[in-house]
From TrEMBL:
It comes from Rhizobium lusitanum. Keywords: Hydrolase. It holds the Pfam family Abhydrolase_1. This is Alpha/beta fold hydrolase. Signal peptide: none annotated. Residues 33-255 form the AB hydrolase-1 domain. It comes from the Bacteria. InterPro entries: AB_hydrolase_1, AB_hydrolase_fold, AB_hydrolase_sf, Epox_hydrolase-like. GO terms for molecular function: hydrolase activity. GO terms for cellular component: membrane. The keyword Hydrolase applies.
Length: 272
């Protein structure tokens, strides 16, 4: 796996969470309460780079999920495998009372993690989430992912479409995201896709006790209105916000607005 050196990558720290397996993460080093941010399928911790400046009063912990970026694949490629790995990371770091932000697959991982750590998660924010992310075995997207072979072309049509956004996003940032995604072996793309077909987080969602905020774009091409409706009824305490005209990556399309929504929700849960 080729890792492209840059400022974000140079900030990564590494801890061993299981025998011979390490997780890479960026730690903002803030003195405030910890906020764990989990990225989506094929992304890396870089996914949240534009949000960092809006959270000066928090300690941001932003890992590369297993098999992504600079983190080793640690076991299987299902959402619960990723949650188990991040659970071990939190134990190593000694973090107990946290707020969680997850995007797409990271949101699924965050749901599973919040179900595991019911007394240790005080808020759960889900961006572009789904409880049942199966794309369908014969969908064009699934066929395109299964057809990926190494080396993956970062400038090819698949990643161009995969990283298409509904609103303007910095082109240099998107180029670096594509390089990160292309560095992930095709076998991991295939394995995660297969895991999605077997994922159903409805029972895990029912076990979450933290207040939940769901943020999604009305123009999300992956998880549309049916996914948003299911999420709206899946948790004990949930608030849903749909951003008109936004796509699957609202935190890239408008990091300031999404950060403001997250901060407002965190402040409200703290008062409660």
């Amino acid at each position: 796996m080729t890792i492209h050196a840059d400022h974000w990558h140079s900030r990564k720290r590494y801890v061993e969470t299981s025998e011979g397996k390490s997780v890479a993460f960026v730690d903002s080093g803030g003195n405030g309460p910890p906020l764990l941010l989990l990225h989506g399928f094929s992304d890396t911790s870089r996914s949240f780079a534009a949000l960092e400046r809006f959270f000066p009063d928090f300690r941001l912990i932003v890992p590369d999920l297993p098999g992504h970026g600079a983190s080793a694949l640690d076991g299987g490629m299902h959402v619960d495998d990723f949650a188990a790995s991040i659970d071990r990371l939190l134990t190593v770091l000694g973090l107990e009372n946290i707020a969680l932000v997850g995007h797409s697959m990271g949101a699924m991982t965050a749901i599973e993690l919040a179900a595991r750590r019911r007394d240790g998660v005080n808020a759960l924010i889900l961006l572009s989430a789904s409880l049942r992310p199966d794309f369908g075995a014969e969908s064009p997207l699934a066929r395109d992912i299964r057809s990926l072979r190494d080396p993956i072309d970062p400038s090819g049509p698949f990643l161009r479409d995969w990283y298409a956004c509904s609103r303007p996003v910095d082109s240099d940032f998107l180029s670096r995201m594509k390089l990160d995604a292309a560095a992930m072996p095709a076998a991991i793309w295939h394995g995660i896709l297969e895991g999605f077909g077997e994922t159903d987080l409805r029972c895990s969602a029912a076990r979450v006790t933290a207040p939940v905020l769901c943020i999604a774009g009305s123009a999300d091409p992956l998880f549309g209105s049916s996914h948003r409706e299911t999420l709206a009824h899946a948790f004990h305490t949930v608030r849903s916000i749909t951003l008109e005209g936004y796509g699957h990556n609202p935190h890239w399309e408008d990091p300031q607005r999404v950060s403001a929504l997250i901060l407002s929700f965190l402040a409200e849960t703290e008062r409660v």
